[in-house]
Amino acid sequence: MNLNAEKIATNLRKGVLEYCVLALLSERDMYGLEIANQLVELELTASEGSLYPLLARMKDAGSVATRWEQVDGSRSRKYYAITGNGRQSLELFGSVWGQLSYQVDGLLGGHHV
Questions:
Q1: 39: which residues sit within 8 A by CB, 6+ positions away?
Q2: At 83, which CATH number?
Q3: Which residue from 1, 22, 56, 83 has the fewest beta carbons nearer than 10 Å?
Q4: Neighbours of 55 (CB within 10 A)
């Protein structure tokens, strides 16, 4: 991917990353590194550096809740779970995304909608 294409892709990913996290959490609760690894695997983010501030903002907004769970008998992991507010946001995003992508696809395909 050339530099300009990567810049466009990066900006688009930043705009939808919160909803991608909510989509992952709608399937099951996950700990931070697990979320980061999934996002990297899906090529939606390059690192976990921007994820933790995003998760903190999402918690403050009430989209996710956290809990600590002890694993391996000694260390603890912070798990993230989608809340009812988060599910509503994800559902709304899905409908907005569907309409927006339809409109953009129409413009890019030369068919004004």
A1: 17, 20, 21, 24, 45, 51
A2: 1.10.10.10
A3: 1
A4: 22
> What confidence tens digit (pLDDT) does each residue in 53-107 have?
999 999 999 999 999 998 877 789 999 999 999 999 999 999 999 999 999 999 9
Q: How far apart are CA 54 and CA 15, in angstroms?
A: 12
Domain span at 90: 3-108
| 3-state SS track over 32-59 | HHHHHHHHHHCCCCCCCCCHHHHHHHHH
Q: How far is CA 37 from the centre of its chain?
A: 12
Number of CB atoms found within 10 A of residue 63's CB: 24
Asked if residue 113 is part of any domain, the answer here is no
Residue 73 burial (CB < 10 Å; 0-12/13-18/19+)?
Answer: exposed
